[in-house]
């Protein structure tokens, strides 16, 4: 257990807290760039309420709209150009993970003279890791990525079909303004994909961290148990504010560094999913619902006792004389049943992906997070053949 | 669930990390005030190692030693005077909770012209809550108070026999440098009192927070389960570095705001214990071992289902048709058994406290944290008669 933990983002959480946006933003400047995705924030009235709050606090705003579900580096460039041209002091992300991730990189790119793609890890020798950024305020409208309270961002390059990440301290949002009311209108399928994303953030560390982290284990299990319980409720009734609040809270703690402190996690499932969604415009959470169980079945073989613990503590399954691997597989089956119950796809066929590009995905997945032999980091490390094997079981 | 969460302290955790002190301190200045308690850091060689690390990094240091186990405002004044006279840039706490708490208030008092006692809550009308402080680095040598990574401090006034607190953002340490090796020499009794302190920080929020915090419940239970498991090991064998590291980590998460985020905790047990240890020089953790079970038996009567959950999830007890209150009491009994097993006192008689000043303690306990009628805040709120009743059951 040797590690650092640091997260200076101020979290302001609660139903109705959107009304505080102007007051909060005014601490960081006079002019804001508001980064949004599709039209849902306009239709729901959230955009107008945000603008009113800013106006009342004397903060003017320009918009960078149309951030894609898998945000592209071209959109980051566009946003950074607006921020510079309009002399914006602060970047406000109003949307899901894509708007938040784009906002962080826009905030860094606005203060960086080179090509913004240099800021993103993609196997280049001289990765220009950002050292400064405009202040960012995140206002999530979806409970999923946890991007609201961490310093990571995932960006896609449509030209090279590479989807990769950056994670560095200057990208921590100053404030995460989290109002679960904003998620009340999220459709059932996106709600479910969000829940799957939340759970996968936790399972990555739980299954791919170091040994000897029993407190973090309990934290992780607690988040998963509640994401399952309240996720079902939020999918069943989108207007259930308590369920929405619990899922939103789970999304934050799943990836703000608390559950993973000292775990030294690596995220093989995310790396494989990124390779898929760089080539196919599937929702990240849906991709995870397909890849994670397939990966779990593969990984359980080399560490059945860990997956048996998952089966017992998360799903309340009992050993009853079974060996660890049998119990482990029962736990994974229970997880797949849950994913199906909330309407997630669990096979590649369901999202129309075949095996044509498996070799390419396997190569892309190990592009950045790999060991000296080029194996994708994780427990166990995976070579390209392993990744193809996992994908094949997900067909 | 409406709340804010914020903790900008950088945690550097791990065996051997004391060697990083100089490098870390040099980021905050050229001259440090080192605040220490008794002679244990000298005897153990920790003080010399800290000085060497500082020297190697070009940081000079002056010392403020002799901070009492229940740190006094007179010591804070003394430390602030040294810091001012010697133009210290940074305050380094090297010791247990008392050195850390004193350091925070010294750091604020060094930049405050009035009487430092004004900075501490004690029922005064114009509480001078600190707004600025010198940077503080905490280096705990005991796993107990959690002061290393939070913005709170508890200070005693020997003249007025009042022990009270301050908690405000400018008192967050810049860095918590936590090296579990430094706790290897802590004696059995102090180790046990520390474990009791850790658990009580968590139970305060668990039993006195708002309803509807299921994720935080799991976090709290996870900390308690592990503090019990690893606490026993650390008491049994003080040289067990893994046990020391787990207990140290439990102490941090028990009171750095993660477990309590959104819980809106109030700490009635701490308030009652502070009233005791203001009049008697007992170790805070030992006082908590006495007061907490007595308080739990009192509070369980008004919310048995909550204490039944504690019995089930922490101690694995099963309802088997019992009513909640019966199960609750069994859980509290299990907790008392654990306290006895690690050698904590669980009655006032064991520490030589009688009932002579019960009325006074009851009055002191509700001095700051009270409702409009003067009741000590908690679930349930307690009037002076209630507090006396709890103390009487602890005789």
Automatic annotation (TrEMBL), chains A, B:
Keywords: Oxidoreductase. GO terms for cellular component: cytosol. Residues 191-394 form the Fe-containing alcohol dehydrogenase-like C-terminal domain. Pfam families: ADH_Fe_C (PF25137), Fe-ADH (PF00465). Residues 8-180 form the Alcohol dehydrogenase iron-type/glycerol dehydrogenase GldA domain. CDD domains: BDH. One of its GO terms (molecular function) is alcohol dehydrogenase (NADP+) activity. Belongs to the iron-containing alcohol dehydrogenase family. This is NADH-dependent alcohol dehydrogenase. It comes from Geomonas limicola. The lineage of its organism: Bacteria, Pseudomonadati, Thermodesulfobacteriota, Desulfuromonadia, Geobacterales.
């Amino acid at each position: 257990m040797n590690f650092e933990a640091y997260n200076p983002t101020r979290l302001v959480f609660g139903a109705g807290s959107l009304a505080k946006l102007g007051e909060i933003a005014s601490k960081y400047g006079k002019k804001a760039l508001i980064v949004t995705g599709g039209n849902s924030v306009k239709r729901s009235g959230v955009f107008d309420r945000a603008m009113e709050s800013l106006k009342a606090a004397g903060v003017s705003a320009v918009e960078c709209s149309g951030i894609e579900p898998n945000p592209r580096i071209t959109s980051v460039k566009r946003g950074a150009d607006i921020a510079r041209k309009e002399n914006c002091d602060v970047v406000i992300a109003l949307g899901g993970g894509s708007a938040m991730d784009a906002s962080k990189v826009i905030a860094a790119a606005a203060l960086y003279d080179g090509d913004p793609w240099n800021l993103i890890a993609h196997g280049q020798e001289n990765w220009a890791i950002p050292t400064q950024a405009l202040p960012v305020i995140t206002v999530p409208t979806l409970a999923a990525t946890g991007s609201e309270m961490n310093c990571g961002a995932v960006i896609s390059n449509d030209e090279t079909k590479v989807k990769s990440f950056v994670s560095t301290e200057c990208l921590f949002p100053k404030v995460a303004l989290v109002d679960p009311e904003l998620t009340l209108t999220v459709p059932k399928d996106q709600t479910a994909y969000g829940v799957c994303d939340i759970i996968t953030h936790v399972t990555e560390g739980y299954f791919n961290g170091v040994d000897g982290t029993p407190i973090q284990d309990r934290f992780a299990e607690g988040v998963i148990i509640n994401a399952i319980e309240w996720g079902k409720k939020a999918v069943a009734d989108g207007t259930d504010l308590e369920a929405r609040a619990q899922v939103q809270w789970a999304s934050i703690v799943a990836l703000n560094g608390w559950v993973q402190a000292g775990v030294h996690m690596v995220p093989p499932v995310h790396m494989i999913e990124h390779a898929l969604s760089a080539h196919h415009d599937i929702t990240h959470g849906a991709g995870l619902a397909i890849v994670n169980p397939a990966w779990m079945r593969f990984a359980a073989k080399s560490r059945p006792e860990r997956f048996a613990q998952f089966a017992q503590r998360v799903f309340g399954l009992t050993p009853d004389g079974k060996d660890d691997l049998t119990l482990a597989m029962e736990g994974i089956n229970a997880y797949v049943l849950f994913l199906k119950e909330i309407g997630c796809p669990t096979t590649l066929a369901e999202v129309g992906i075949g095996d044509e590009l498996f070799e390419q995905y396997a190569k892309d997945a190990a592009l950045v997070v790999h060991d000296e032999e080029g194996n994708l980091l994780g427990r166990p490390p995976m070579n390209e053949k392993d990744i193809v094997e996992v994908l094949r079981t997900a067909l």
